[in-house]
Structure formats: C-alpha cells, structure tokens
Amino acid sequence: MYPIFRLSTAAALLALAVSPGGARGETNMLFILDGSNSMWGQIEGVPKITTAQDVLATLLDDLPKDTKVGLMVYGHLDKSSCTDIELLSPIGGDSAETLAAKVKGVKPKGKTPIAGALAASAAAFAQTIGQNNNVVLISDGLETCDGDPCAAAAALNTANIQARVHVIGFDVGAEERRQLECIPAAGKGRYFSAGNAGELKAAVAEVKKVAAVVEQKPEPPKPPKPQLREVFRDEFDGDNLADHWEVVNPDPDAFIVEN
User: Fold this and answer.
1) Please, are residues 39 and 52 in contact by the beta-carbon 8 Å criterion?
2) Three-state secondary structure call for residue 96
3) Cβ-count burial of 149 within 10 angstroms (0-12 exposed, 13-18 middle, 19+ buried)?
4) pTM for this structure?
5) Nearest partner of 145 among 181, 176, 110, judged by Cα
6) C-alpha Rg value of the chain to the nearest Å
C-alpha cells in the first residue's frame, strides 16, 4: 500500500449563487375601467363612460391573437363602497364580443378605489407568472378611498407576476394628473393623457403597442472566475516531514525521495 499524505489544515468552500433571467411569454392585458360617478361627466356632449366603452369595444376587435385580455371595474355597483371592485372578465376568459358587451354594460355609480383595484388585480395574473403582464387603468379622477395607488402599482411590478402598470388619464386636471402619473412611474409603465374621444382612441392604440413590447431584462452578470492563491508551500528541505504533515498507512518500503 502506498502512503497517503494528508495536510492537516481547513479548506474553505465558496458557493456562488446566480439568478437566472425569467422568460417572458405571451402578452396579457387587464383593463381596469373607472366606473365611478364622475364618469357621467360629458365631453363634447357625450358621457365619458360612453366614449370609453366605445373605444375599448373597438380595441378588443383589433388585438393580436396572442394577446389575452381581462376586465376589472370599480365604482359601478354601490354609491358609497370602497370595496366596489369586480373582475368582470378573467384574462383570456371571454371572446372579444362577450368582453365588449360587458364593457358596454358598465353603469357608473360610486367611488374611486384605485389602490384597491390595483391590489385586487394581482389575483387575475395568478396563472400567468413569467409572461408579459400589463395592467391598463383608465380613470378620470383621484383616489377617493384613502388608498396609496403608487404603492399598489409598485407592489404589482415587484411581485412574481411582474406586471407593468399603464395609466390613461381621461379628461383630468393638474391635481388628478399628478397622482395618476405616479402610478406608472412606480409600476414601470407609461402614462397617456386624453382630453376627448379622439385622444382616448389614440391613447388606447398606443398603450396596446407599448404593452406588446416585451421588456428586455438585462442578463445576470457572469460569476467571477475563482482566483487561485497559494495557501501552503513545503520545500521538503531535510530528512523529516514538517509537523503539519501526517502520514496515513505508512509503508517504509514505498517511500521514494528524489532530489
């Protein structure tokens, strides 16, 4: 048996963790439509809700086949409730025709729980993790239920669904615009302004293009190459091994020492 030389010293192990970039699949869009009472306000003699319904219905007929759409509405059932939020159509659950009919059936009535609606929308994307997820809020006013829409948008974007949050401000003033603009800023989306039917149509068409563009995630940095370093040297100068060496299963006949 040949002798085994064992160095009596500790060894350190370095573990490197690499986070792989997630793939982005098909495009999903959840429209959140403002159904609060203020949507009965008129532009050029037409209620804002009517204009929004007509524009959305047209959009649904013109979406790419690989885009799935859902619809959420708030403020359309109760005049005073801050929990009046309803998912009328799950993402990809209805045909364009059925979805358009649901849009047309919205009757504005109550408050504007924007933060609550954004928070509730996360559940709609539960089966789409890893895909290109987008929330599109169409609103004409401020949060009226003491929520924080900006924080809610940030939570959507940083959650595992990684949804981008876009906003179309429809006929809003300076104060309303400031609050609405912070939502896409926090949700890594885009803000679009619309003051009439033509501008709303253009904004919806533009948000459709923006949502279809898959966000390019930067590739994770490559782990650094291990740096080799000398941890021990023994010149074997002399007849005997130094104290920090140990001979296991010694066999005097097998020792060979040269030079």
Assistant:
1) yes
2) helix
3) buried
4) 0.74
5) 110
6) 31
